[in-house]
């Protein structure tokens, strides 16, 4: 097994070194977050990623708070410090309480029922690689068939990001780090 020091490290690409083929994404989400500055090492992938990211982040049928529950649980299950911190910050911006955010790290029976349904579907994808039919029915009742599909796609999307974040030890974005230094995330 290779030594950890031999592992490739891809730092976030600075504005000065931003790839010319990604010029259309300059000033967008891609330059706003370190995870996408790392993904910019593969311009074709980041370009292809953009429309899916736009759908899942801005147009998900889950709605903003439900989507954040899904992302937070995925970040927790991925052991992604960056993903968790980034989405604690986003959840707070949506007005979610620290108690609700913290509950996402705990057992399903300690969560609000709707949050437990969503987190249970995330857990099922991690543990069984599928959402079983009874749980599918609960998610559909809560968020519709499109919501169920958005949930599954969101988990896959953030598992991929979590893999990048964990593999390359991507540093937390300065604004999020400063906000969480002022008001630490719930434990």
What does this structure look like?
With 187 residues, the chain is mostly helical. It folds into two domains: 14-59, no CATH class; 63-182, AhpD-like (Up-down Bundle). 65% of the residues lie in helices and 0% in strands. It has nine helices and no strands. The chain has helices at residues 29-32, 34-39, 43-58, 64-78, 81-93, 98-103, 113-128, 133-168, 174-182. Helix 4 packs across helix 8. The protein is globular, with a radius of gyration of 17 Å. It comes from Roseivivax marinus. This is Carboxymuconolactone decarboxylase.
Give descriptors for this structure.
AhpD-like, globular, 2 domains, CMD-like, mainly alpha, single chain, 187 residues
Q: What composes the largest sheet?
A: none
Order of secondary-structure elements: HHHHHHHHH
Amino- and carboxy-terminal Cα gap: 34 Å
Question: Structural class of the helix and strand makeup?
Answer: mainly alpha
Hey, roughly how much beta strand do the residues contain? under 5%
